[in-house]
Design a protein that fits this description.
Layout: H1 27-38, H2 46-82, H3 89-97, H4 99-117, H5 119-128, H6 138-157, H7 160-185, H8 204-214, H9 231-260, H10 272-281, H11 283-317, H12 335-348, H13 353-381, H14 395-415, H15 418-443
Helix pairs in contact: 1-7, 1-9, 1-11, 2-8, 2-9, 3-4, 3-13, 4-11, 4-12, 4-13, 4-15, 5-11, 6-11, 6-12, 7-9, 7-11, 10-11, 11-12, 13-14, 13-15
Length: about 475
C-alpha cells in the first residue's frame, strides 16, 4: 500500500487524531507506564542469580542497562519526538524504508507485545495458587484468566489517564515492600555474599535471556506519543526518569536478597523474593510481596495493552490497516485495537512461560535490528528535520553506540531453540504475506483504508508536525 495513495482519504469513522480533546498523558503517569512496559519491579529477575550467582547478577543489572536500555531509550526519545504520533516505531521505519517494512515491524512488534502480555494473567494466578489451590488448573483457572483479561481490557477501554494513574498506584504498592525489606535487612547484610561467583557453573543462556527480557521494550511508549502532553519535552524526560526507576527497582532488591540471607542458588526462581521477605520480616511481609507481585502483573498488562492497541490505531491512521482500526471510543481509546489485543492474549495464554518468553525475545530482536538501521538512515536522510530531542552524538558515534546491542541481539538469536526459531520464522513469513493480502483487499474494495489528512507526508524532507 503506497503511503500517498490517493484512495486514502479521511472518513468520519477515521477522524483526525487531532480532533480528539481527551486529556493528554502527563509526565508522572507516563514514567510509570514506561516502568510497567519495561519492568514492573524485580519479579522475574531471580533466575539471574540462579544462573550466574550474586556478583554477575548485580553487575549484569548495572552494566546491561548501559549496553542495551540506554541506547534503546535514547533512540526512542529522538525518534519519538521527531514523529509524535501513535504509530511510533512503525512510522519511523515507514519514513526511512517505506510502508512495506513499516508494516513488517508493526506486525512483529504487535505480535511480540501480545505474546508478552499473555504472560501476565498466567503469572498473576501463579502467585495466588498457593493460597487458592483451585487456580492450579482446569476450568477455575481458565475462567479466572478470562475474567481478569476482561477486567483489565475494560480499564484500557476507559482511557489512558485511568491506565496511567492506575500504574502509579500499582507501582508504589509494588515498590514499597522492598523499601521496607531493605530497612529490615540492614543488620543481616553480609557484603561478602555479593562477591560470590563461579564462572564454571554459569548458565549463560538463562542469564542473558533473563537480563534481556527484564530490560527491553523501551520503544513501546512511542506508540502513545500522540496521546502525550507536550511530547517534545515530556517523552525524553519520562524515559530518563524511568531508566533510573527501573535500574534501582532491580538492583536494590537483588542487593537485599543476595546480601541478607545465606546463598542457595537453586532456590532463586520466580517467586523467591516472597520467601526472602518471610525470612527477613515474617509472614506479613511475604504476603505483601506476593500481593505486590500479583498487582505488578496487572500493571504490566494494562501498560502493554495500551501500547499494542494504540499502535494498531496509529497504523490505521497511516492507511496501513483497515480504517475500522482507527475507530475510537467516547474515551478516545482504540476499540478494535483493544479487542484484537485481548483476543490474542486469551489465545496465547495457553502456552508455557518458557515458550512465551523465548518466542517474544526472538521476534523483538528482529524488530530492534530494523530500528537501529532506521535511526542511522533517518540521520542521513533528514539531517535538518525537526528533532525536539536529539541524541548528542554524530552518525559515526551513534553507530558505535548501537554496535554492542546489535551483537547482543545476534547472541540471543543464536541461543534460541530450534522450535522457537521455527515458530518465530513462521510468524515473520505470515507478516510478509499479510501485507500484500491487505493491499489486494484494498484494490478489490473488500476493505476500506484511509489516511488522516493532517498527518504530514513522511517522504517530505520538510515534514512538520507543528502545523494544524
Amino acid at each position: 500500500m503506497e503511503e500517498n495513495n490517493a484512495e486514502h482519504t479521511a472518513t468520519e469513522s477515521s477522524k483526525s487524531p487531532r480532533s480528539y480533546t481527551s486529556a493528554k498523558v502527563s509526565l508522572l503517569p507516563l514514567v510509570f507506564l514506561i516502568f510497567y512496559e519495561v519492568s514492573g519491579g524485580p519479579f522475574g529477575v531471580e533466575d539471574s542469580v540462579r544462573a550466574a550467582g550474586p556478583l554477575l547478577a548485580l553487575v549484569g543489572f548495572l552494566v546491561f542497562p548501559l549496553v542495551w536500555s540506554v541506547p534503546e531509550a535514547l533512540l526512542t526519545a529522538e525518534l519519538g519526538t521527531m514523529f509524535p504520533e501513535n504509530g511510533g516505531f512503525v512510522v519511523w521505519v515507514s519514513s526511512a524504508l517505506g510502508p512495506y517494512w513499516g508494516f513488517q515491524l508493526g506486525w512483529m512488534k504487535w505480535l511480540s507485545g501480545v505474546i508478552d502480555n499473555a504472560l501476565y494473567p498466567v503469572l498473576f494466578l501463579d502467585y495466588l495458587k498457593s493460597g487458592i489451590p483451585a487456580l492450579e488448573g482446569g476450568f477455575p483457572r481458565a475462567a479466572t484468566v478470562l475474567a481478569l483479561v476482561v477486567l483489565l481490557t475494560y480499564m484500557n477501554y476507559r482511557g489512558l489517564n485511568i491506565v496511567g494513574w492506575a500504574a502509579i498506584t500499582l507501582g508504589v504498592f509494588s515498590i514499597l515492600p522492598f523499601v521496607v525489606m531493605g530497612l529490615i535487612s540492614i543488620p543481616r547484610l553480609q557484603p561478602r555474599r555479593w562477591l560470590v561467583v563461579d564462572l564454571q557453573k554459569v548458565d549463560w543462556s538463562l542469564f542473558l535471556n533473563t537480563l534481556f527480557w527484564n530490560l527491553n521494550y523501551w520503544d513501546s511508549v512511542s506508540t502513545l506519543a500522540g496521546e502525550v502532553e507536550n511530547p517534545g519535552q515530556t517523552l525524553p524526560r519520562s524515559l530518563f526518569y524511568a531508566v533510573i526507576l527501573v535500574v534501582l527497582g532491580y538492583f536494590f532488591p537483588l542487593l537485599i536478597g543476595t546480601g541478607g540471607v545465606p546463598l542457595n542458588q537453586e532456590l532463586w526462581t520466580d517467586g523467591y523474593f516472597s520467601d526472602i521477605a518471610k525470612i527477613l520480616g515474617g509472614v506479613w511481609l511475604r504476603t505483601w510481596v506476593q500481593g505486590a507481585s500479583a498487582m505488578s502483573n496487572m500493571g504490566m498488562f494494562v501498560a502493554e495493552m495500551s501500547s499494542d492497541s494504540f499502535q494498531l490505531l496509529g497504523m490505521a491512521e497511516r492507511g496501513m490497516l483497515p480504517e475500522f482500526f482507527a475507530k475510537r471510543s467516547r474515551y478516545g481509546t482504540p476499540i478494535i485495537g483493544i479487542l484484537f489485543s485481548a483476543c490474542g492474549v486469551i489465545f496465547l495464554s495457553t502456552l508455557s512461560f518458557q515458550e512465551i518468553v523465548a518466542a517474544e525475545n526472538f521476534l523483538y530482536c528482529f524488530g530492534m535490528l530494523l530500528e537501529f538501521i532506521v535511526f542511522v538512515k533517518l540521520r542521513v536522510k533528514y539531517p535538518a528535520a525537526s528533532r525536539p530531542y536529539k541524541v548528542p552524538l554524530g552518525t559515526t558515534a551513534t553507530i558505535l553506540m548501537f554496535t554492542p546491542p546489535t551483537l547482543l541481539i545476534f547472541v540471543v538469536l543464536a541461543l534460541a531453540s530450534l522450535k522457537v526459531m521455527m515458530i518465530s520464522l513462521l510468524a515473520l513469513v505470515i507478516g510478509l504475506v499479510l501485507q500484500p493480502c491487505l493491499w489486494y483487499s484494498e484494490r478489490k474494495e473488500w476493505l476500506t483504508f484511509s489516511r488522516s489528512p493532517d498527518l504530514p507526508d513522511l517522504h517530505d524532507a520538510n515534514f512538520d508536525y507543528s502545523r494544524p
